[in-house]
Structure to design on (769 residues):
């Protein structure tokens, strides 16, 4: 066994399909069973250029090793044909994430092995082995313990050393002291053949339990980090750069001011700029919350994050990359983020009190016993027993065990917890604020009235080629009703007005009331007219579609005694309509991003803990300022990366479940802290009195750690 | 007590064997995808000629 370099031993071998940076990594949000794995692996492996595929169900990812030049887009299209959604993840952002966990597992394995063997030897000593047997057993235990501790406890020693070097105390200083001192003193005892108790097993048990706590903590951080990395990797927006008469696909953050880019209908504007060519409608909902599209012509400015709806544009960049309006919005957020990261969790607060208290106790025990008995050896022994017993095994497990269990449970419900303190903050929420467009509503309009089938067929024929949301709503309604679109000739889209075409020599127009039918229409865009030459004109009206279970979710929140409000940047009329549909009594329309922030800050000053649920750029400030925040997975990347929790399902109900789970988790954390503390309250006086033996320490340590973990995993129906 | 001089090395060797087994599982990535492995048991694609 090559124990010489345990780090290398712990490194995974490369003969399996290991995630290599040039591999294509796909995120498959929908896979959940053996059949899905088989479909994805077989479907992709059948493609040309694909060497091997390995699906990881836990991470919901597929690692595809392919020949150079293979296109991720073909893989995604193939998977779409098989019925699986897929997105490309940026391999570079994800590389090397699992190494720390592997390393910790290896250390746990070594500590566990050594602990079991030494414990066997110790049991013989405790049972009354005498003289030479006892001496030999101690020497064997020393031979196992010292290398094992040197390897397994290195993270604690390293962290303690780092803290001491800058003149500070952290939780790892007393841990390193307890492990190091107990091993060293026992070694001296074993070599001298003294009849003092040996603490080898205690040193190893400490290392083992603390490593388990550290590993759970790492799992929590890793889950949060990989969630963030997933989202960051998802959001690498691309741009079509026009140079030398040809289009090149480039990363949006590599654009420079002065570059000319093409923005196709249905894609987001990647940088701030001025329109050189084209005339189109832009959906600014992400930036302002407004649902009505905005008409732009040559010379008008466009901002990053706006969605092009109708016709292609040529845009000259003014600001790109980190300089865009979109990014500058996030600067406003930076200070609020700082504030939130200063929130200290239960574990941090406990650690701050704990470290100095333990040092004082240990030092006090040593000084007291030396003064009383005049025997430094005995005083050192008591001091070690105090340090060992107060060592925060159970305390280190109390919070991470609960958050690991709860986070996993929430992931199964469709909630991705990104922040480490999110659970504790969610548990304190007493008011929930929703954004309207894209959060309470799906953001896509649906046809509301019931036009005649022939009108619908004609309108669908005209709307087929357009990516305008209202056109798509008409096509969707036609498909839902089983109406076949009528073929229409000469279809042209007139940006800002609608679509025109002809059929049987008749001119057809579908669009704004005043343009299509000569009827004066309001500015409210939720109405479209269809005219055909001299014939009768038909009207189509639209409504916003509420997310599934929005009503039920709000009712359940109210039943829990939580206040609900609606903040939107949209027109007050539209906001009032939705508020009425949901029976909300507090709603505000036409709020600027700063207005939302101010509203939330006023609430926070009034002592309320507000949860913000939002998806747009205009919500980012509010998401950052709120006590806790949730963003749906359809949200813009800026909003998703700020939110503490990302909602993966379409339904809103998990929001209420998240609050329930968080409150329960918070309760469990409190119970666990109390349990851990109770063990100390009983055993510390005994240790101070010099009554604690290694056997006693071993029992107290294991039972407290096991009780705390079991309490974390306990199910309540 | 002489029997101990055999038994102690035997017990330590057995322990080391266990540790070597653990290291092997770690190296062959058996903790990477516990949920996937649970489902793959039901998969009969590789029954006749196991995947390398």
């Amino acid at each position: 066994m090559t124990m010489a370099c345990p780090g290398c031993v712990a490194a995974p071998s490369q003969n399996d399909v290991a995630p290599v940076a040039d591999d294509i990594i796909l995120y498959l949000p929908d896979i959940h069973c053996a059949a899905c794995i088989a479909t994805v692996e077989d479907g992709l492996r059948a493609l040309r250029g694909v060497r091997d595929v390995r699906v990881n169900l836990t991470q919901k990812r597929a690692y595809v090793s392919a020949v150079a030049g293979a296109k991720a887009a073909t893989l995604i299209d193939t998977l779409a044909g098989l019925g699986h959604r897929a997105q490309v993840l940026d391999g570079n952002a994800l590389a090397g994430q699992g190494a720390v966990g592997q390393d910790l597992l290896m250390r746990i394995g070594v500590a566990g092995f050594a602990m079991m063997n030494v414990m066997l030897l110790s049991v013989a000593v405790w049972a009354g082995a005498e003289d030479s047997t006892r001496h030999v057993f101690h020497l064997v235990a020393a031979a196992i313990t010292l290398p094992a501790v040197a390897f397994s406890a290195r993270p604690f020693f390293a962290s303690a050393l780092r803290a001491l070097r800058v003149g500070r105390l952290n939780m790892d200083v007393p841990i390193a002291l307890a492990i190091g001192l107990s091993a060293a003193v026992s070694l001296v005892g074993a070599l001298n053949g003294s009849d003092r108790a040996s603490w080898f097993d205690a040193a190893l048990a400490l290392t083992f339990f603390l490593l388990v706590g550290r590993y759970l903590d790492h799992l929590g951080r890793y889950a949060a980090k990989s969630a963030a990395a997933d989202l960051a990797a998802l959001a690498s927006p691309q741009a079509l750069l026009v140079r030398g008469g040809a289009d090149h696909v480039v990363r949006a953050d590599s654009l420079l001011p002065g570059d000319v880019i093409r923005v196709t209908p249905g894609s987001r504007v990647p940088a701030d700029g001025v329109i050189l060519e084209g005339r189109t409608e832009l959906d600014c909902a992400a930036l302002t919350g407004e649902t009505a599209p905005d008409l732009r012509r040559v010379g008008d400015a466009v901002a990053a994050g706006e969605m092009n709806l109708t016709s292609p544009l040529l845009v000259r960049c003014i600001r790109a990359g980190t300089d865009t309006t979109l990014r500058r919005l996030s600067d406003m957020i930076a200070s609020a983020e700082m504030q939130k990261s200063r929130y200290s969790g239960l574990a941090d607060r406990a650690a701050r009190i704990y470290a100095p208290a333990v040092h004082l106790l240990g030092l006090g025990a040593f000084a007291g016993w030396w003064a009383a008995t005049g025997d430094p050896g005995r005083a050192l022994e008591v001091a070690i027993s105090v340090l060992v017993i107060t060592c925060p095994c159970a305390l280190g497990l109390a919070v991470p065990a609960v958050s690991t269990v709860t986070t996993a449970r929430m992931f199964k419900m469709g909630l991705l917890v990104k922040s480490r303190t999110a659970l504790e903050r969610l548990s304190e929420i007493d008011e929930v604020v929703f954004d309207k467009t894209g959060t309470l509503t799906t953001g896509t309009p649906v046809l509301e009235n019931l036009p005649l089938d022939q009108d619908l067929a004609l309108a669908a024929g005209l709307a087929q080629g357009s990516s305008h949301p209202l056109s798509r709503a008409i096509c969707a309604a036609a498909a839902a009703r089983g109406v076949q679109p009528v073929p229409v000739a000469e279809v042209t889209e007139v940006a800002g007005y609608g679509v025109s075409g002809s059929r049987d020599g008749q001119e057809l127009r579908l669009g704004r009331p005043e343009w299509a039918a000569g009827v004066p229409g309001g500015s409210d865009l939720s109405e479209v007219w269809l005219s055909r030459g001299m014939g009768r004109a038909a009207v189509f009206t639209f409504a916003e579609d509420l997310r599934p279970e929005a009503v039920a979710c709000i009712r359940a929140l109210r039943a829990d005694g939580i206040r609900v409000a609606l903040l939107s940047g949209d027109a007050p009329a539209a906001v009032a309509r939705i508020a009425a549909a949901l029976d909300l009594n507090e709603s505000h329309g036409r709020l600027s991003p700063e207005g939302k922030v101010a509203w939330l800050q006023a609430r926070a000053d009034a002592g309320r803990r507000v949860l913000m649920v939002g998806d747009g750029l205009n919500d980012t400030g509010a998401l950052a300022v709120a006590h806790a925040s949730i963003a749906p997975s359809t949200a813009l990347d800026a909003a998703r990366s700020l939110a503490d929790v990302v909602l993966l399902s379409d339904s809103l109900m998990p929001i209420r479940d998240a609050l329930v789970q968080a409150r329960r988790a918070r309760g469990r954390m409190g119970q666990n802290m109390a349990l851990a503390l109770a063990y100390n309250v009983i055993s510390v006086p005994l240790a101070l009195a010099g009554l604690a033996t290694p056997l006693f320490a071993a029992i107290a340590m294991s039972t407290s750690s096991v009780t705390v973990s079991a309490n974390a995993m306990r199910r309540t129906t | 007590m002489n029997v101990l001089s055999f038994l102690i090395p035997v017990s330590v060797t057995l322990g080391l064997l266990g540790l070597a087994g653990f290291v092997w599982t770690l190296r062959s990535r058996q903790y990477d995808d516990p949920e996937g492995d649970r489902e793959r048991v039901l998969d009969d694609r590789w029954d006749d000629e196991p995947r390398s």
